[in-house]
Design brief:
This protein is α+β, with helices and mostly antiparallel strands. The chain contains five helices and eleven strands; from the N terminus they run E-E-E-H-E-E-H-E-E-H-E-E-H-H-E-E. The chain has one domain. Strands 4, 5, 7, 8, 9, 10 and 11 form a seven-stranded antiparallel sheet that branches. A two-stranded antiparallel ribbon has the order 1-2. A hairpin with a 7-residue loop joins strand 8 and strand 9.
Length: 239
């Protein structure tokens, strides 16, 4: 009888060790990205921010307060986003540590941490914000949105798009406020009391950010700097 051929797609077993070698190509993509304690990546971020916010001028008295967003994930679910407003980096870091200390697990293991800091803001009414959306193609609105001037409730551009908060359906070409999706994510982020503005004259702020990305193996500064508008313009200009 002829010998049976071993399938080329089946990893060969090591008879001496009782193990099966898993080809690198068959590994889970996450297996190639190690986890690290949140404190480790926050330390990386603080060192990078100390240089970044000073060199970009956003920590100067004229542009105070400083506004930072932290987006973190272990790779198995969507990133959790938290943001802080403070006089300077030292003030914000006290708030970061207070937030972390209040967590059920103050030092979770994560794979990625993205840090955004606000570099420009534009004041608009809620009415004019919606007009700006109507003049933007869906999924191409390139600003963050703070629903109040104090940034108590603020969302990054990535949050708005990832949660379809400005998506009105495949048949609508322009962006617009999807109240259902906005409320679902807003309440998840800020609690059951979250509400969209009801007064067209309510003052909101659009904003742009600069950012960098941290992982256990590297820090890339400025890798995701965001432009001040789709073509460098001012949101809502001419409305």
């Amino acid at each position: 009888m002829g010998k049976k051929k071993r399938s080329r797609n089946v990893p060969k077993a090591d008879a001496r060790q009782g193990k099966t070698d898993t080809p690198y190509a068959l590994m889970s993509p996450l297996a190639r990205h190690p986890k690290a304690p949140l404190t480790v990546l926050l330390a990386q971020a603080k060192a990078a921010l100390t240089y970044a916010v000073v060199s970009s001028g956003v920590e100067s008295p004229a542009s105070a307060p400083l506004r930072l967003f932290f987006s973190m994930s272990d790779g198995t679910k969507r990133a959790e986003v938290v943001h802080f407003v403070g006089r300077d980096l030292a003030d914000i870091w006290e708030k970061v540590e207070a937030w972390r200390g209040a967590l059920a697990n103050p030092c979770p293991s994560i794979r990625w941490l993205r840090v955004d800091w606000v570099d420009q803001t534009w004041d608009l009414t809620w009415h004019h914000c919606q007009l700006a959306l109507e003049n933007s193609k869906r999924s191409y609105f390139r600003y963050g949105l703070a629903l109040d001037r104090g940034f108590e409730q603020a969302f990054l551009e990535q949050e708005l798009n990832a949660n379809a908060m400005l998506y009105l359906g495949g048949t609508v070409e322009q962006a617009g406020v999807n109240e259902k999706n906005f409320n679902i994510y807003g309440r998840r982020r800020f609690g059951a009391g979250f509400q969209l503005p009801q007064d067209p004259a309510h003052q909101i702020r659009l904003f742009s950010t600069q950012a960098f990305f941290c992982s256990p193996t590297m820090v890339r500064s400025g890798c995701t700097a965001l432009a001040a508008g789709p073509k460098g313009g001012t949101p809502g200009a001419g409305l």
